[in-house]
Amino acid sequence: MSLLLAMTGWHVEDWRARFAALLPDMPVVILGEPFDRRSVHYVASWKHPEGSLSGLPNLAAVFSLGAGVDHLFADTRLPEVPIARVVDPDLTTRMSEYVVLHCLRYLRQQPRYDRQQREAIWDDDRNQPAARSVRVGIMGMGELGQDAARKLKVVGFDVAGWSRSPKTFEGLTTFAGSDGMVDFLGRTDILVSLLPLTPDTRGLIDAKLLAGLAQGGRLGGPFLINAGRGRLQVEADILAALEAGTLKGATLDVFETEPLPSDSPLWSHPAVTVTPHNAAMSEPEAVATLIAAQIRRLEAGEPLEHVVDPARGY
Ligand code: NDP
Ligand code: OXD
């Protein structure tokens, strides 16, 4: 019985060493090296090559090495076995830090003061909105969205959440589905996207959605923060909304194409902040420990945790 590591872009030998230390009785094999396909019971994947997991007759489960599973469902030949993802409190905390940081940057007009400093302009503008007067809307009220919402509330923001299914959280206004979308956007000064990429969410952040955001709120116009996935957004529509002035600024951690191509106008746009898909890095040791615990759970006949639904795509 073995664990197959199937990843691209990461140091697979480091992962082999981590899993070998955590699961001393389980051989760890690597895609690209010779191995007995019948021996593989578990796969840990990050962006494995299309089709590379088919022909594993004893496969019992696939583990995503990240929180997102869109990289798995991109494989049209993915085996029909349970799929589990990473839910890690440390990763969640990092994402909330990112969201709170960038909401506060917009609340406290930091991009403007950075610009003024570069030009040696002393403009002690007295228009300083209170956090309670700024409406943050979080799209995606899962593990990440709920934690970010709680922490934004502590800072004082007026927070609402939008999800696929109706939900209630103390102190939060909530909206759900396409029926709730118009009202949700219409009360949003800072839109935070923490959605997974699925067939339903692909291209959701487009011209129509951006046009629905609140105009004339306390920040003088709406802002966008996307740390979910790049293919949620239509970058040409974001740029057009910035040019039209209907969007005041955007902070983007994820992009349609990653790494962001060097000729993308997003790099140099004065109202755009770019971060390199590291809003919430997974700590490799923590991820390996979580997956090893899941494997031990299965071996003990206990159910897997954090299983995703292939029909929903998350
Ligand atoms: P969860 O699965 O816990 O939550 C997903 C949320 O999105 C749920 O609230 C769900 O609704 C909602 N949702 C899904 N589809 C729709 C839809 N069609 N319409 C409305 N709401 C929808 O995921 P996490 O919070 O753990 O993670 C979210 C995403 O964050 C990941 O999938 C990944 O893409 C991204 N991520 C980015 C990182 C980065 O560094 N930039 C790091 C880690 C994750 P419901 O509650 O009704 O099910
Ligand atoms: C993840 C990510 O999905 O880092 O974990 O984006």
Describe the structure in your own words.
The protein has nine helices and twelve strands. With 314 residues, the chain is an alpha/beta fold. The strands form two sheets. Strands 8-7-6-9-10-11-12 form a seven-stranded parallel β-sheet. The relative contact order is 0.14. The structure holds NADPH dihydro-nicotinamide-adenine-dinucleotide phosphate (NDP) and oxalic acid. Residues 67-68, 91, 95, 140-145, 163-165, 167, 194-198, 200-201, 227-229, 253-254, 277-280, 314 line the site of NADPH dihydro-nicotinamide-adenine-dinucleotide phosphate.
CA-based gyration radius: 21 Å
Mean residue pLDDT:
97
The helicity comes to: 25-40%
Which outline best applies?
Answer: elongated
Bound molecules: NADPH dihydro-nicotinamide-adenine-dinucleotide phosphate, oxalic acid
Oligomer: single chain
- Poorly predicted segments: none
Could you give a short account of the major beta sheet?
7 strands, parallel
> SSE order in H/E notation?
EHEEEHEHHEHEEHEHEHEEH
For the termini, the CA-CA separation is 28 Å
Q: Order of strands across the widest beta sheet?
A: 8-7-6-9-10-11-12
Beta-strand percentage? 15-25%
Number of strands: 12
Which structural class is indicated by helix and strand composition?
alpha/beta
The helix tally amounts to: 9
